[in-house]
Design brief:
6-stranded mixed β-sheet; mainly beta; about 180 residues; about 5% helix; 8-stranded mixed β-sheet; 14 strands; elongated; single chain
């Protein structure tokens, strides 16, 4: 299934074999070099205090009206994920990052992403300028992700032939 992050915010996480809500989806962690979804941030449903936790994409069994995880222990503090610490400290995020073309033309800020819920790969970036959405950019057009901006390929402009090159047919005679 292909989903946009903005439509999934607030979806509950549920442990396999239980109906208890463990928390709700509050964010995403994407690897800037591979566009792979490393995992999701979970806002816990603790009554006294809510805290932001993390679940790896590998621990998600099924995605639907609720996100089914293998075990409640799969949702833990992000500090417990030692492998992800360099990624968090890198500062090259996709969401919230400025987007521009090779020539420097500004496209806006990456405000949303579309990803696949089976392979957990980001497929599209959605730039936004002020209150207006820009044209979606496929991940295959990303050249480089820097701390300052996401650099994308120049958009392809379709080539059109001039009108004089087009063949004009003479009108057919009417049948009697």
């Amino acid at each position: 299934m292909h989903v946009r992050l903005s439509t999934c915010l607030g979806v509950p996480f549920v442990e396999e074999g239980s109906d208890e809500t463990l928390g709700v989806l509050s964010g995403i962690l994407i690897h800037p070099d591979t566009a792979k979804v490393e995992g999701f941030f979970v806002r816990s449903s603790s009554f006294l205090r809510g805290e932001d936790l993390f679940v790896s994409a590998l621990d998600i069994l099924r995605w639907g009206r609720a996100i089914l995880v293998s075990d409640r222990e799969a949702i833990a503090a992000i500090e417990d994920r030692i492998r992800l610490q360099p990624l968090l400290e890198d500062g090259r995020a996709l969401l919230g990052q400025r987007m521009q073309t090779e020539s420097g033309r500004k496209l806006g800020t990456c405000a949303d992403v579309q990803f696949d819920t089976v392979h957990f790969l980001v497929e599209w970036l959605f730039p936004r300028r002020w209150f207006k959405w820009g044209i979606a950019v496929p991940v295959s057009d990303i050249l480089e992700v820097r701390k300052e901006a996401i650099i994308v390929r120049e958009p392809q402009v379709p080539v059109t032939k001039p009108a004089e090159d087009l063949a004009v047919f003479e009108p057919m005679q009417e049948a009697v």
